[in-house]
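Um, can you check?
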Amino acid sequence: MNSLTDLLNIKYPVIQAGMVWCSGWELASASSNAGILGVIGSGSMYPEVLRQHIAKCKEATDLPFGVNVPLLYPDIERQIDEIILGKVPVVITSAGNPRTHTARLKDAGITVLHVVSSAKFAEKAAAAGVDGIICEGFEAGGHNGREETTTMCLVPQVRAAVDLPLAAAGGIATGGAMLAAIALGADGVQIGSRFVASTESSAHLNFKSAVASAGEGDTLLTLKEVTPVRLLKNGFYESVRAAYGRGATAEELRSLLGKGRAKKGMFEGDLNEGELEIGQVAGLIGDVVPVATIVDRLLAEYEEARLRMRPLA
């Protein structure tokens, strides 16, 4: 047990990231049943859909689970209402000001963690009263911080800035990476991309297969003028690259992105025109397997990496 497992009441210090179009109740409940914190990704859900996922998750597991809430998305107030009514044990907020809803969630008895991309934002989140911090490095998939700080640099800076349970995220898909994050000062990790390529993920099989087939250098952080996002290279990405080449404005990039492109790619399986959000670590994944297998591998790899450590002299 450590401060993160104590805070979340879980067996292993691992959080399955709540990802749009990939993290429904099946993934969340399977993750919780495997001894980690399963998380529903509410960013792609209307409030009434979120209500259904919360109810189904509670039917599928009696262990703690959470909901990830991107604070800049529409219908946030109604999503918070559904979370409180559903008695969700843990909420992970991201992409916005944690002061807005933290007090209300905590008053409802909910544990609150906030995702940050810098030590400065970690300090602000701590001042807002959150219970724990998730620091996410530049390697992460999906929407990302503008600072481009790598996880290895970010974790010790955040650890020095705040004295709260801390999970490292970004570029973590193996037990060795988990050990490294803990060595840098984290109490545990949050893992996203590895769980996209799981049997229980709600992502389309086409997208899961593309993630499992990805190699080194197949992702890139782009669209910083709109909102920074790490994408798997495909036809849409090439359109973005061409737009940059002709000097497109932020408004032109926003128009190119349009609406529903992430759903088209990750949920509907359009690998050419869809937005395929995934982390750099996709190059290490290689297969699509059940959550229980992923967790078993992670723990075995952690022990193998720990045993490989030797004194310097």
Q: What stands out?
A: The chain has two domains: 3-202+285-308, 208-281. The mean pLDDT is 95. The domain at 3-202+285-308 is CATH 3.20.20.70 (TIM Barrel).
